[in-house]
Amino acid sequence: MRANSESPAETTHPRGWYAKLSGTLLLVAGTAILMGIITAEALYPAAYSTHRNTVSHLAAMDDIIVRQPSAAIFNWTMIIAGLLVIVAAYYLYRALQRKAISIPTALLGIGMVGVGIFPANHGNTHTLFAMLAFAAGSIAAILSWKVLSGPLRYICLLLGTAAFVSLVLSFFIDWAPVARLGEGGIERWIVYPVVLWMVSFGAYLASRPAATTVSQPDETTQPEPADQHPAPV
Fold this sequence. Notes:
The protein is mainly α. The protein is built from six helices and two strands; from the N terminus they run βααααααβ. Helix 1 (14-42) packs antiparallel against helix 2 and helix 5 runs antiparallel to helix 6 (176-206). The radius of gyration is 25 Å and the shape is globular.
């Protein structure tokens, strides 16, 4: 009998590619948001405080003042990253078949697009989309622990919990611990954990193998010949 020297073949599974695509889009979107905010803050042409000013103030202040180039950088970053997250949510569902994670992720993307289209000078419309992004992002991060493994599942759970608790605390801005952070500080405790989750969860999905190793029969393997000697009577 000739031994099979070939390694087992790999067959690609569509869900594996969907997971990698979804993860890549989340990773790119999260990185773009982080770098976009940093760039908009660095190029803001007036006094800007992370204690006093929210992230959305990069696009427009509450007094309707819009300052460039920060506004354009922030708005387009939110719109493009939001669209990437929406597409990522679609492929996330195709990969995992879990609405509990994919729907909040899609709502996060919708909220981000809305924030970019309707800056802070649009009043309640902007607030509605911002709250949608904050709530959906924190919930998606919390629920993602069900599909993660190892320490990362607890890290993402912690990030989502931190964002959700901070969202609740943001309604008590006059409470001393929250007041010390300021409106800008407490909002960043909502935004950055969600962004870090997008990067972490996205990297996890993008690094998953897209192929499954299966054993294939060796066509060159010959069956062992039967015993030619007659059986004893």
